[in-house]
Amino acid sequence: MLPLSQTMSRHAQDFIDDARLEKLAGAADLVDVGHLREVIAKSLGKEALSVEETAVLLHTRDRELREEVLGAARELKQRVYGNRIVLFAPLYIGNMCVNDCSYCGFQRKNKHAVRRTLGTEEIREQVVAMENQGHKRLIVVFGEHPRYDADFIATCIRDIYDTRSGRGEIRRVNVNAAPFDHAGFATIKAAGIGTYQIFMETYHHKVYAAVHPAGTPKGDYLWRLDALSRAFEVGQDDLGIGALFGLADWRFDVLGLVSHAVFLKDRYGCGPHTISFPRLRPASGATVAGQGLVSDEDFKFLIAVLRLAVPYTGLILTARETADLRRAAMEMGVSQIDAGSCIELGGYTEQTCGQRMEREQFSLGDLRSLDTVIRELTEQGHVPSFCTACYRLGRTGEHFMEFAIPGFIKRFCTPNALTTFMEYLVDYASPATAKSGLAQIKVELEKLEDSPMKQKLLERLELISTTDQRDMVF
Ligand code: SAM
Ligand code: SF4
User: Fold this and answer.
1) pLDDT of 353 higher than 90
2) Residue 473 maps to a domain
3) Confidence (pTM)
4) Could you identify the atom of ligand 2 that is nearest to the CA of residue 201?
5) For residue 89, which phi and psi values (nearest 5 degrees)?
């Protein structure tokens, strides 16, 4: 028998059937309009879709019918999430890597990459700089390397939580790192992580093998596909999946993501907390040809399809995309974005002119500051949120789904969004952002009916404006 450190989950299974997904992804325009509308109605009833139903949406090519899909996604987003947008930022801690993913600037073969791993003091400096911008939620990112084992990552996470600057603190650390074994997942869970996120990159076996050479750890498709099952088995149930769009056919990978969500829900009673859909960006040393490039139109459409397929799963749109695209795509159902992001190691304190490709994993499309993004969000009627309540109160996994279904998100998330947004406005915003943010809070308060909850919310907003009291969670 293999030692525990190399064991898969109890029922490890490769649930991706390429032939079936290729058939579903490749079928010509087979849209039966009546069926399409039934699928949309099911989703608007907040029911998750099957892989086959998702394929029906994906095949909508007619412009007017596509509009119906996009409109439904906008509506579902409003119904489930309201106009909140949760904000976070990435913190790259180390870019040493034993893999050779052909699309990534950190790949072992890239001799131009400047390799660096932040030490404890350097991590603290980065965190202070991020807190001083107003961030409360981070995702730590690592290459795959024996040095970045679960103990190392857990220590980094504890250091981050311990680092405080003025009223600033990081209240949630998410992790994007190579897949762990059971013991590794237990170790990072004990450090108090929020979401553990891992992208399958592509679910298509052949394309996966072409971009992740055999003999490297990442070349093992099933070890990666099975990672979240191992996490579930040790109680880490706040999980994120993703696909890197641009490697394989985009319809195939949307179906791969939905297959993964369905598999987790069936086996563990709970789907992923988030789905990410990064698009391939230029990277130092990257050699990938990019056979599945997705146009902006298709990209916005695929976000809408994902929104409809998994109504209760958060959708994350990163600063890989340009400000213009993010503005437009947000409406389709995105619930989280990063802002003020810097992906160069040490980049939050070591100011450089523009991006230096040999020090970064890939190039970013949106380099605006957190303050600018927040001002723009409020001008467009969104409510920026730094809420971290659920995972700190144990509302994750299956429990989160129970709460989420009867409209919990609006009851708890809106007040938490408003209090954390008020904290940002009072503690960090520029005068122009504070002005536009306070006006947005006023609009949101007017929408709330009188209730004990509204009374409590008003009191808390007042306390935030006039005292040092912070972090009052609903
Ligand atoms: N090294 C770990 C791994 O591969 O899972 C952890 C995170 S890796 C640094 C984060 C993610 O960046 C990858 O999963 C991949 O999807 C994405 N990525 C890599 N190269 C990219 C590129 N050129 N453009 C956009 N995203 C990229
Ligand atoms: Fe390494 Fe991750 Fe980049 Fe692959 S994607 S080369 S594993 S950092």
Assistant:
1) no
2) no
3) 0.94
4) 5
5) -145, 150
